[in-house]
Amino acid sequence: MLCNQLGESVDFRLTAGQVHDSTQAQALLGQRRAEAVIADKGYDADVIVRYIEAHGARAVIPPKRNRRVQRKFSRALYRQRNRIERTFARLKHFRRLATRYDKEVVCFYSFVALACSMILLNLYVDTP
To answer: Residue 119's CB: how many other CB atoms inside 10 A?
Structure first.
């Protein structure tokens, strides 16, 4: 999932259970412009970091412990990564997503999109 600086979902991709999330990083980022891209250690790959920097953004990704040359990253910016974690926590309030009720990809994808839309609408619509 890709979120903006406010923690609002921008885009998402579904992968098979055995596929690592980082394989979709470049597809999610696409040609979007950003000052910084914040991700966890799972996205610490030279290919991803180079892709981010080639598009003029700063890669705020902590290096893995097994890296021979440890890269520098901004700890202050990295603290904002909790926004995406909070987005996932809000999505898990939808029981259907948390329990993976839908087995068909198209149904699961559709409900994730619907849940993201409902979360965004709740930010802008005041309902009792």
So the answer is: 17
Distance of alpha carbon 2 from alpha carbon 61, whole angstroms: 15
**Whose structure tokens read 């394989």?**
23
The helix (H) or strand (E) run that includes residue 37 is strand 36-38
- pLDDT of res. 127: 65
List the one residue out of 10, 17, 4 whose CA is nearest residue 108.
17
- Does residue 128 have a pLDDT over 70? no
CATH architecture type of domain 2-124:
2-Layer Sandwich (3.30)
Domain limits of the chain? 2-124
- Listed in sequence order, the residues at least 6 apart from 33 whose beta carbon sits closer than 8 Å to its beta carbon are 55, 56, 57
Cα separation of the two ends of the chain: 29
Return d(Cα 120, Cα 128) in angstroms, integer: 16
Q: What is the pTM of this model?
A: 0.82
pLDDT per residue as tens digits for the range 32-70 = 999 999 999 999 999 999 999 999 999 999 999 998 888
